Amino acid sequence: MIHDTNINMLGTYSQIYIQIVFAVKGRQNLIAKSWKDELYKYISGIISNKGQKSIIVNGMPDHIHVFVGLKPSMAIADLVRDIKNNSTNFINKNKFVNGKFSWQEGYGAFSYAHSQINQVYNYILNQEQHHHKKSFREEYVELLTKFEIDHNEKYLFDWVDL
Fold first, then answer.
1. What is the rounded CA–CA span in Å between residue 13 and residue 69?
2. Residue 59 near residue 45, CB atoms below 8 Å
3. Domain spans of the chain, in order of start
4. Going by C-beta distance under 8 Å and a sequence separation of 6 or more, which residues neighbour residue 146?
5. pLDDT given at position 10
6. Does the pLDDT of residue 2 top 60, yes or no?
7. What are the C-alpha distances in Å from 100 to residues 34, 59, 90, 125?
8. Alpha carbon of 139 to those of 31, 70, 107: distances in Å?
């Protein structure tokens, strides 16, 4: 008799859709058009190497949006830590900026239903259009409010108002 050890094992199947938003330290406009696509591909690779699904990575010179399909075994905080650490090293190693690049502490994480994937994808894809109408601060506070996340604006990011 062949004994199949998998026959009695139940699988866990899920997909949790999370939009993660984080900013350049000091909200400086350091992410340049000349290397942003390389950075986004690199971040997407970090996500894939962690066994997660990278849906889209895009942003502005001062912040990034990452949309992922997350497995429940991966903590969001661990994924964000790895994205920030590895992408910081990538930027600094390639000398994309003068001096030391780093991300600001903290991030926002917002969950979505499967039926909202296209909507969120298009929102992230069209970041430049959105930011003609509203600042990153307005966008971020709007997300926190929409998701009913208690927050105190003085503890969000180090905002640089131009």
1. 12
2. no
3. 16-155
4. none
5. 64
6. no
7. 18, 20, 11, 28
8. 18, 23, 13
